[in-house]
Amino acid sequence: MTRTRTVVLVGVVVALLIAGVGSWYASSSPDGLEATAAEQGFDGTARDSVTADSPLADYATDGVEDPRLSGGLAGVAGVLLVLALAGGLTLVLRHRSSGAPTDVEADSDADAAADVPAGRD
Amino acid sequence: MHVPDGYLDAATTAGTAAVAAAGVALALRGARRELDERTAPMAGLTAAFVFAVQMMNFPVGLGTSGHLVGGALTAVLVGPWTAVLCMTVVLLVQAVVFADGGLTALGTNTVLMGLVAIGVGYGVFRLLRAVLPATRTGVLAATGVGAFLSVPAAALVFVLLFGLGGVADVPVGSVAAAMVGVHLLIGLGEAAISVAVLGAVLAVRPDLVRGARDLARGPALAPRPASAGRPTAPTAPTATDAR
């Protein structure tokens, strides 16, 4: 059986490849909501987000000329950021009553929980 | 379908923010029950994966594209409450860092792609799992239909919100027809991607799929003492044991 740590690592690599490389090949057509808004005439009320000046706004990296690299870097940064935030949140919430007695709170290493052997309920 | 700032008026935006906050608060409680030693490592990965795949817009014709929302897929993988948290993190990062979806519209987007897509996607999944055979194919079919319906459902709720508090003066009926029509097409892509990803995880580690745990068998997947849970196939008692 593939170890949990291996599954998670492979999954992260796949996500990084999709966001970092694959996203270049994504359709740049307006999405369903944008297209509907334009067609129905309610797109005019859209306002720029206050975060529109973010260094990664619109999935482009500020200061990186090459559009492919710019988008890829933004995607990789996003995957890592989401992984850290969602992984951290779920580690904090994870209930330990049924898990192996690992000290999650004392251990900030996200990998520590990635490969806990099957514990007893 | 990331709603930008300015489509909906302040009252509707505030209302959806309140609903989103309540939903996330419930999810924080519910996720504690879902997150165990097998779900927890998957949750961060699932959120990161959803973020990545949401960048992959696919064409649906007529100069329009769509992307995976991932409500049904996420809920089947890690459980619905944890899925709400994963989706909220994805939407938060998209809004704050990538200016994708408005910042004041974050609550609206959390309602649409978090609560509605996950609620409908997972609800349909559970309904179908109850009637379909308990096989891998049954799980995939239930996920596919749930994923498909979750997208037009979220689009329909956007139309309802637009009817309540759309800023532009546009007839809601034609918005509804256009939104639901294009999101039925996007739903097909949602179903295809969800089934493909779930099929891959089921092939490698079915026990990591929370919505398919009842399928998992074998000693490595049964940490409970046999007497505590339902009997699993390998230890079916023979007639002489039954005393």
Descriptive report:
The complex is a heterodimer of chains A (121) and B (243). Chain A is mainly alpha-helical. Chain A has a domain at 54-113. Chain A is built from 3 helices and no strands. Chain B is mainly α and 243 residues long. Chain B is built from 7 helices and 2 strands, in the order H-H-E-E-H-H-H-H-H. Chain B has a two-stranded antiparallel ribbon. Mean pLDDT of chain B is 91; it is low at 218-222 and 235-243. Chains A and B meet through helix 1, helix 2 and helix 3 of A and helix 1, helix 2, strand 1, strand 2 and helix 4 of B.
Write the layout of secondary structure elements.
The complex is a heterodimer of chains A (121) and B (243).
Chain A: H1 4-20, H2 32-40, H3 67-93
Helix pairs in contact in A: 1-3
Chain B: H1 10-34, H2 39-54, E1 58-61, E2 64-66, H3 71-78, H4 80-97, H5 106-131, H6 136-165, H7 172-204
Antiparallel strand pairs in B: 1-2
Task: Summarize this structure as a short list of keywords or feature phrases.
heterodimer; A: 121 residues; 44% helix; extended; disordered C terminus; B: mainly alpha
General form of chain A: extended
Envelope shape of chain B: globular
Name the strands of the widest sheet of chain B in spatial order: 1-2
Distance between the termini of chain A: 21 Å
Report the mean per-residue pLDDT of chain A as an integer: 84
Low-confidence stretches of chain A: 98-121
